[in-house]
């Protein structure tokens, strides 16, 4: 079993989604934090303010690439957390981002919802906000290719 799969299983067994961050170093690089949304099984992703994430110091505003990566990461983490049997990371097919207003250098929060999940494809909608969830700074629609279930994976030929 890979270290990734083991860390995800430990995170789920403990009910602590923060352990997922250790399995995906880019999330730690961005400084993303995770917490449970009150009264749901959903996760909230939190991007604390950091000077290194500013793209336009004149406003100042977060770099658009950081906002996009944050939205994609929030969707990925929610998909992993909601999956019953994680064997590998889901692969991004497409991500469409709508930048709605400048994201200032303050805490940014995102919630990803699985809008449809089939056997091989999952679709998620992610919304990010600062201070007021009714005034989002960006949103994204993402499609992920899910790893095949263990019974459908191709096994290498023995010969």
TrEMBL record:
<dbReference type="InterPro" id="IPR029069">
    <property type="entry name" value="HotDog_dom_sf"/>
</dbReference>
<feature type="domain" description="Acyl-CoA thioesterase-like N-terminal HotDog">
    <location>
        <begin position="61"/>
        <end position="144"/>
    </location>
</feature>
<dbReference type="GO" id="GO:0016787">
    <property type="term" value="F:hydrolase activity"/>
</dbReference>
<feature type="region of interest" description="Disordered">
    <location>
        <begin position="139"/>
        <end position="159"/>
    </location>
</feature>
<dbReference type="InterPro" id="IPR049449">
    <property type="entry name" value="TesB_ACOT8-like_N"/>
</dbReference>
<dbReference type="Pfam" id="PF13622">
    <property type="entry name" value="4HBT_3"/>
</dbReference>
<protein>
    <submittedName>
        <fullName>PaaI family thioesterase</fullName>
        <ecNumber>3.1.2.-</ecNumber>
    </submittedName>
</protein>
<keyword id="KW-0378">Hydrolase</keyword>
């Amino acid at each position: 079993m890979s270290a990734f799969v083991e860390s995800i299983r430990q995170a789920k067994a403990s009910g602590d989604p923060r352990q997922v961050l250790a399995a995906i170093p880019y999330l730690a690089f961005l400084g993303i934090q995770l917490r449970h949304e009150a009264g749901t099984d959903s996760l909230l992703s939190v991007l604390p303010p950091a000077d290194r994430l500013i793209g336009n110091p004149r406003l100042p505003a977060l770099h658009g690439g950081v906002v996009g990566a944050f939205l994609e990461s929030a969707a990925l983490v929610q998909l992993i957390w909601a999956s019953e049997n994680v064997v590998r990371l889901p692969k991004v097919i497409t991500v469409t981002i709508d930048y709605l207003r400048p994201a200032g250098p303050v805490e940014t929060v995102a919630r990803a919802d699985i809008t449809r999940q089939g056997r091989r494809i999952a679709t998620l909608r992610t919304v990010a906000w600062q201070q007021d969830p009714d005034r989002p700074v960006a949103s994204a629609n993402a499609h992920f290719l899910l790893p095949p279930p263990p019974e459908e994976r191709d096994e290498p030929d023995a010969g």
